[in-house]
Structure formats: structure tokens, C-alpha cells
Design a protein that fits this description.
heterodimer, A: 90 residues, 46% helix, elongated, B: 190 residues, two-stranded antiparallel ribbon, 8 helices, WH-like_DNA-bd_sf (chain A), RNA_pol_sigma_r3/r4-like (chain A), DUF2089_Zn_ribbon (chain A), DUF2089 domain-containing protein (chain A)
Chain lengths: 90, 190
């Protein structure tokens, strides 16, 4: 099973940051305090949307036909995501 | 059912427009044969004497005014609202009226006959109970019809304008009311 990366604190729901990274080959451990990249702050559904958007060269019409929904529905999802990213104060 | 209540969310805009245009033409033609007139986007009458021009223009103006109402409200709320989506919603909203016109398939309903019954002070005649049940069933049917129409507008407008707030829907209601009044005035003066 592929482990899901947690992005929110299970206790207070604040966005988590990276405090430790490790090398699987030589076991080197790097410690520090790194904020999560914007992409990882988004929900898995939003991440999937961005990936689809990229794979269709940014064509909402093509995305709509691939997902089996209409153009305005895809456009609304994109608008909502833009607003969400703006709200993350980036 | 979900697709029927909000086709704009699922279907391709151009295919939907073609289907709506075909239904518009077929609906208008059947309305002529079923002696139906449309005096506003949410109104229909059956008459013994109908004018071809009135039925066709009435339906056209009703559809156009609905489109304008959705487009105006949509543009106020969201600048990205598209003409084709508003046109699709305006035309789709009218479909149940074309189906309702088939109530008069045997030409037993008309404003003239209703007025005559009211003057004679009997609407329910021999089989009173059956006629009362029929009348109440019709009332319930129309209430259900209006609720479904409301759901179609609510869901579809949410898709075409990305409406979320209560004020968005207030703008829509005001726009629809304004265009209902305008179109009624235009149709009655034809």
C-alpha cells in the first residue's frame, strides 16, 4: 500500500512542515525546517487535476472530454483551485 | 436523474445546443398544433383560436428573455460566464412546457371553455369526486413541476456562473423577475 503523505496536523489541523529527510541507500539523515511545496499543500484531488491539466497541455476542453464532464464544470474546478492557492498566501 | 436536473454539468455544450435547438423547433411546432400560447417564460395557455405568429413569437421571446436573464445575472457574478451555456439553460428550461402542452392533445382545454364554466358557476359537474381528485392531482403536479424547475435553475446556474453565495442567487431571481415582466409586456402587445 502506498502511504499517503500527511499535510495537516492531526491535532490542530495546521499545515505541517518537513523536519527530517533521509537517504534510503546510506541512511544519511538531514534535519531542518522546510515548508511543504505548494503542490503538496493541495488535496490529492487537486493534485490529480493539476496533473491532468499538464498532460492535456492546459486544454480545458480536452480535459472535459477525457473526464466526461462539461467545459464549465472543469473551468469552475480550476477557478476554485486558483482561489484555494491564493488563500494559502503564496 | 442528476444529468436531467443539470445537463450543463455533464454534456458537451455544442451537442446540447444542437439537441436544444431541435427540441425548440419541434416544441414550437407541436405547441401550434396543440393550440398552446406562451405569454411569458413561465406561463402557458390553451385557446380555441390561436394565432400562429403569437405562439411562435411568444415561445421565441420567452426563451430569449430567459437566456438574457441568465446571461445578465451570470455576467454580474462571474465575468467568465459564456453565452452558449446561458442559451442552453434558457432552452432546456422551456422543454417541460412543450411536454405539458400535450395535456391538450384532445383539444378539450381552452381559456374560453374555462371562462364559460366559471360563468356558469360549475367547474365540477356530474362526477364531482373524480373531477376534484383530478383537479387536486393537477395542483400537486404543478407544485412538483415548479420545484423541479427551481432545482434545474439552481444547479445549472451554479455550473454556468460558479455561483455560491446567497447574493448570487438573489441577483438571479431579480434578473429572472425583471425579464419575465418585460417579456410579458412585449408578448401581450404583439
Amino acid at each position: 500500500m502506498k502511504a499517503k503523505l500527511p499535510t495537516q496536523c492531526p491535532s490542530c489541523e495546521t499545515l505541517l512542515s518537513v523536519s527530517q529527510l533521509s537517504c534510503e541507500t546510506c541512511q544519511t539523515v538531514v534535519q531542518g525546517n522546510y515548508p511543504l511545496p505548494v503542490f503538496l499543500k493541495l488535496s490529492p484531488k487537486e493534485q490529480e487535476f493539476i496533473l491532468q491539466f499538464f498532460l492535456t497541455s492546459g486544454s480545458l476542453k480536452e480535459m472535459a472530454s477525457q473526464l466526461g464532464i462539461s467545459y464549465p464544470t472543469v473551468r469552475n474546478q480550476l477557478d476554485d483551485m486558483i482561489q484555494h492557492i491564493k488563500d494559502l498566501n503564496i | 436523474m442528476k444529468k436531467l436536473l443539470n445537463p450543463i454539468e455533464f454534456y458537451n455544450d455544442r451537442k446540447l445546443l444542437i439537441a436544444n435547438l431541435i427540441i425548440f423547433v419541434v416544441g414550437t411546432t407541436s405547441a401550434v398544433f396543440l393550440q398552446t400560447t406562451f405569454e411569458s417564460p413561465i406561463d402557458m395557455h390553451f385557446s380555441d383560436k390561436i394565432e400562429l405568429k403569437l405562439t411562435i413569437l411568444g415561445n421565441f421571446i420567452s426563451t430569449l428573455s430567459l437566456f438574457l436573464a441568465f446571461f445578465l445575472a451570470g455576467r454580474i457574478i462571474n465575468k467568465k460566464t459564456r453565452i452558449i451555456d446561458c442559451l442552453n439553460l434558457g432552452m432546456y428550461f422551456r422543454i417541460p412546457y412543450y411536454i405539458l402542452a400535450f395535456i391538450n392533445i384532445s383539444h378539450f382545454l381552452s381559456d374560453e371553455k374555462t371562462n364559460l364554466n366559471i360563468k356558469k358557476k360549475y367547474i365540477f359537474s356530474e362526477n364531482q369526486l373524480i373531477e376534484m381528485i383530478l383537479a387536486y392531482s393537477m395542483i400537486l403536479f404543478f407544485i412538483g413541476f415548479l420545484i423541479i424547475q427551481g432545482i434545474i435553475i439552481y444547479r445549472s446556474f451554479k455550473t454556468i456562473a460558479n455561483a455560491k453565495k446567497t447574493t448570487d442567487y438573489l441577483i438571479l431571481v431579480l434578473s429572472i423577475l425583471a425579464f419575465i415582466i418585460i417579456s410579458t409586456l412585449i408578448i401581450r402587445n404583439l
